[in-house]
TrEMBL record:
Domain of life: Bacteria
Residue ranges of every copy of the KAP NTPase domain listed in the record: 35-350
Gene3D superfamilies xrefs: P-loop containing nucleotide triphosphate hydrolases
InterPro entries in UniProt: KAP_P-loop, P-loop_NTPase
Protein name listed in UniProt: P-loop NTPase fold protein
Amino acid sequence: MRLFVPPIDVGPEEGFTPQKDLFGRAAVGEGLTHLVSTVTDPLVIAVDGKWGSGKSTFLRMWMGELRKVGFPDIHFDAFENDYFDDAFTALAGEIIGLAEEKRKEASTKAKRFKDTAVEVSKVLARSGLRLGVRVLTAGAVDGSVIDAMEKDVAAEASGVVDKLIGEKLTQQKDQKATIASFKSALSDLPSLLTNEVEVASSDEGSIGKRKKDKPLIIVIDELDRCKPLFALQILERAKHLFSVQNVHFVLGTHLGQLSNSVQIAYGLQTDANMYLQKFIHFSITLERAYADGGDGERRKFIDWLIRQHQFESSDRNLVHTITNYLIALADKLNLGLRDIERIVSSIALTLACSSEPEYRPASLICALCVLKVKFPELYAKAKVGDLSFGEVQSALQLKNSWGEERRRVREVLVEYFEAMLLPDSEAARNVRFPDNLAFHGITRASLLPYLTNGLIDRMRPA
């Protein structure tokens, strides 16, 4: 049995396969491909979803489909690159790397892009000098003093500046000309980087290779996990420096978290949604409504996780029952995929460190593992015997209707928790626990601490 499931391994040109496209998102990918194929104006598209909703896996599969039909593409992990001082340097470096990988760095177009990218980097570095003086003085001095200070700084650093940048501060019109040259060079790159693909020839149905120019697709993933200022800088650079014909950006992010980054950077009074609309043309939401019977993404994901964990055959019936409880709780509590993954790992650890003769109630194992991941403060109370029925009733939504199909799941959970936490309840009189628990001195009141400490958190062989 495995305690942890590795990420889904998607090959560079694998695309959406039935075995790995657990949520049937190939159709979404097809629509996205059609969009970037037919629109020549520069697009910025957000693939929106909460952390753990499968955005990265979807984007890797989609990029595999793009490569099959010859699209040039770049995958940029914003979280891994947010140590860069400027997002432009990181993004331009990825594009240069793609050209070099294809052994086209010596071509006129690739060399022109590389040279203009260097010049834009110089412009950005020079522009940052004035900003740096303002930041260091916290805005406490006026413009004339800053001008004087900049001259002093420039004079002191002239040797370093000349060495790193290669020339003195440019005027605004020179900066605009440099950026315009860079954009022109970038717009020439898609035709250079487009891959050859096999196509059927009109001559006797023969198969040959042909290249048809396609737009460059730059996928930026983990935008909601990187430093807020770096995330916003990426958006601004994409808008102002990389916005050219036949270059599209696709962002993997959670727009809610990105909105928080806007307010961190510009203040809580900022209209974050309005700000993001300036940079993102539209978004695609991966998450969708789930059927009441669990016939949705969560069921598919839970079933896949159970298979990947490779539980012992002797635990098969117990795991099947736990799975049914987890599907019901996951849908009722609207659990994210990453939460579900951690819950199943906790269940796997519990079963790995226990054996069949022990008291292992499927409903309580599942419910307590859900509390451990989703409501850790309540789980901590359960460990010391301080959890109240009202708290667990509210957290697991046991008051609400669960629908006819899941009515019995809810009833069992209510009965067990009432029997343990409400000594005067009808459930406390009717629900029987194994006789050997009392033999070992375990009472109804101490059953939750026993299960949490002695079963779920034991982490040692039975």
